[in-house]
Automatic annotation (TrEMBL):
Classification via Pfam families: Glyco_transf_4, Glycos_transf_1
Residue ranges annotated for the Glycosyl transferase family domain, each copy included: 175-301
Cross-referenced InterPro entries: Glyco_trans_1, Glyco_trans_4-like_N
Source organism, top-level taxon: Bacteria
Protein name (database record): Glycosyltransferase family 4 protein
Boundaries of every Glycosyltransferase subfamily 4-like N-terminal domain copy: 18-128
SUPFAM superfamilies according to UniProt: UDP-Glycosyltransferase/glycogen phosphorylase (SSF53756)
């Protein structure tokens, strides 16, 4: 099958530091190549891929030092190039939200659109409603709740290469971990409160976006002086391997409808248990008593820690291998691609 993967241009594929969508696109693309398909990836030039790369920008937007740049212009240029070459592919798989809708309406039946973000935002329902023919994939069932009447064709959970992270049977660090982004909805303040109440160190590896800097300085920075709390900033995949593997557990105390939460399966790949809030996709990812526990309050979180830390780390890794590898993800997408192609052919035959 000839497959085009169209990635956002905000980060390299995979990202050099923080980044979710582009990381998933990287893992999916390589796994599709491994399955024997002819894959072309439209992304920034600093991408590392096993597919044929069509470089649409000299580097990813976020780490580009140019003081003035237009993400809209970059993405429109990419979509123009994809449309120009559309006949070369059996499937066009988009990961750019709904930006491509007006350009590919006439060939919507050969597209797949994975929606990676939250959908409970003003204007989204109206926009999706204007282009109802595009087949959509959700990354969790919970992601659909605010717009259940869209043209959903499947839910496919994210996956990681089986060998990307090392299994760590015995954590060496003796600390709890928080990994991701510092923002009000990620609730690193909860993670700090849990660690302090439990008397355990907490290491925070997280980026701070410009939109969240005021929040960070006003609400989080004062908490970093608490005993045992260490903020180390953004880290790379290489650093993440040891950071998660050496941790006693990952704290995921979110306060928003998380569409998936890639960091949960990154921790599971290392054998590290996950303590997560009952929000968004969490009940679809964490198997209570197997890969972690799901809680609804700080006091419940502290009370659950002994059981969490007693979980079998080999069992956590096994859960990851069974459910969340990139091979599992790719095979689900391949099955979907073939199904949509068969349905499109049937529609053409019946006129």
């Amino acid at each position: 099958m000839r497959i085009a993967q169209i990635a956002p241009l905000y980060e390299a594929v995979p990202p050099l530091l923080y980044g979710g969508t582009e990381r998933v696109v990287a893992h999916l693309t390589d796994a599709l190549v491994e399955e024997g398909h002819e894959v072309t990836l439209f992304a920034s030039a600093d991408t590392c891929t096993r597919a044929e790369l069509v470089a649409m920008r000299d580097q990813a937007i976020r780490l580009d030092p140019a003081p003035l740049k237009s993400d809209l212009a970059a993405h429109l240029s990419m979509l123009h190039e994809v449309r120009r070459r559309a006949d070369e592919f059996d499937v066009l798989h988009f990961h750019v939200d709904l930006l491509h809708y007006p350009f590919f309406e006439r060939c919507a039946e050969k597209t797949v659109t994975t929606l990676h973000g939250r959908l409970d935002l003003k204007d989204l329902a109206g926009a999706h409603g204007r282009w109802p023919r595009f087949p959509l994939v959700s990354i969790s069932d919970s992601q659909r709740h605010s717009m259940e009447d869209l043209n959903w064709v499947d839910t496919i959970h994210h996956g990681l290469p089986e060998d990307l992270y090392d299994f760590s049977p015995q954590p060496q660090g003796g600390y709890l971990a928080f990994l991701g982004r510092i923002s009000p909805e990620k609730r690193v303040d909860r993670a700090i409160a849990i660690a302090l109440a439990a008397g355990l160190p907490l290491r925070i590896a997280a980026k701070v976006d410009s939109v969240d800097r005021a929040y960070f300085h006003a609400e989080i920075e004062p908490l970093l002086d608490s005993p045992g709390i260490e903020y180390i900033g953004e880290i790379s995949d290489t650093e993440k391997n040891r950071f998660l593997g050496d941790a006693l557990a990952l704290l995921f105390p979110i306060d928003w409808p998380e569409p998936f939460g890639l960091v949960m399966i990154e921790a599971m790949a290392c054998g590290t248990p996950v303590l997560a809030w009952n929000c968004g996709s969490v009940p679809e990812v964490v198997e209570p008593g197997v890969s972690g526990f799901i809680v609804s309050s700080e006091s419940e979180a502290v009370a659950t820690l002994p059981a969490l830390l007693a979980l079998d780390r080999r069992g956590i890794r096994d859960s990851f291998e069974r459910r969340f590898t990139s091979a599992v993800m790719a095979r689900s997408y391949i099955e979907l691609y073939w199904r949509l192609l068969r349905e499109a052919a049937q529609h053409r035959r019946t006129g």
